[in-house]
């Protein structure tokens, strides 16, 4: 039986397919990378996006414990509201003691909050311009494209462009589908030696990782990126030799030669990653390795968790990136990662589903944070140990008013979790909405309607740029490239007399600059 070249590549290299399709393209094909003007921490930093797919119900993540706001909460949620005594009290800086409570599944996040290593960003979501209720009702201010749509709002979070149909973009971005993680990679590329991709995705929303000049490494959730082998060394060697021969055939066709170049580079990256992961991990003290591995063992009796192994693979890649080339690692200074956890579209029977999802999230975030602490304590990285910040994103939050199926429906602004050693934690950032839906919410300026869909008071752009700034994209030109709408948003907030938080390019003091 004869096989076409395409069939051969599909059969022998399926393990590299995701990487080959999206690895860094030749510069002549996609344009030169943007210049970088970076500063800050001299060691390694990573931002890790945890995308909660389906629309996480933030209203049950963070609940006010004051008598009046809690009564509003329970009035809207007689069946799925969490009993006040079951919530985990927290005392955010600047607020009354035990002013809020976290979902009972978030015990480890609560501990990190109390330690000052976790924060919550309140009522954040996609916005074209800052908006008040009257402007929403009248349509005087543009809304995000296809508000309340899963796919469109996932894209809005992943791209930090709420209105792709009408947005004004820098020339380098026109006609390209990019995410803010990928555009951040375009900016920070100059800080890393070589061409190894700055963004590595194990899950979440692929758009987040796509840049204009830098493309991500897309890896299956299990972390394996290699040729499909059959256990026979001679067969595997023959397969590799045959692949090299096929890739060398171009017949003078430009696109054919370009594909061969891309695929060869993808193979190079995959091999470099595998070797660096093994060498850097082996360089850690055995005690550290064992302790980290133990963190990523799920609780007794738990099976089927998907987020924990993704974050374990991120940790292994982080070690490889932070280890110097001389030490067998990749010798990088800045990276971003993406992982995902699905199942948050809780229209029916939300209580048990959401409880289980948040338990998985809680355990996984804590395991990763503690693993990075163990790397710092190992002493292997000297005075500049790796730093990492975890942050959550989701399509949207959900209606405050429960539906007849004891679930919730699509809404808008929600609360995000940020965790890391450099997080200025123990605080709520942004403005928590009023939960008063008396008179169908007519007197509540925070809701679009009677069901409690909160108009965001912080934009995704501000949230995204806070992380991009921490990674080093501090110049105004870098800001305007990573978040193209942000300057217009801030100018409108200033002109419109919006609160101070809306008039800032990033969330102040969320992350330390050093």
From TrEMBL:
Pfam families: DUF1501
Protein name, per record: DUF1501 domain-containing protein
